[in-house]
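Progress report, Aim 2. The chain analyzed during this reporting quarter is listed below.
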Amino acid sequence: MAGMYYEDFVIGKVLAHEATRTVTEADNLLITALTMNVQPLHLDAEFAGQSMYGQRIVNSIFTLGLVTGIPVQETTLGTTLANLGFREIEFPKPVFIGDTLRVETEALDKRVSNSRPDTGIVGIEHRGYNQRDELVCVVRRTALMKRQPGAGP
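Predicted C-alpha cells for the chain:
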C-alpha cells in the first residue's frame, strides 16, 4: 500500500507532499459548471475585474478537492476506509487561475476505533500554499484508517 496505516500517523509530524498542481482555467470552468455555481467571480472576467480581487477567483470547491487530493498517494491510498467528515475548512487567501499549489499534512490526533478495533480514527490537517508561500486553504478532517495487519484484536 502506498498509503499510511493508522500506526504510521505520528501526531504533530508534518509531511510535505512532493506533488504540486497549477490551477488552469479549464479546472475552474469545469468545477463551476459541474456544481452549477454561476457565481460571476468565478466565470465573468469583466465582473471579477471590478471586484476587490481584480480578477476571477478559483471556485473554492476545486481548491478544497485539490488540497485533500494531493496528499492521497502518500497518506491514504488503499489504507483509508472512510472520510468521516470535515471538522473545519478555511480559505485565508483566494486562489487565482495560474497559481501553483503545494500541500502539507499533519496528524492532529488519533485513537483506535471503539466499534471496529481493527481500525483507527485519525484527525488530519491539510494546508495548501500557493507559489508565493501564502496559505490558501486549511482543511481539518477525520478519517477511518486501516490498522496494520495483526495490529487489531
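The two ends are 21 Å apart (CA to CA). The first helix runs from residue 25 to 34. These observations will guide the mutagenesis work planned for the next reporting period.
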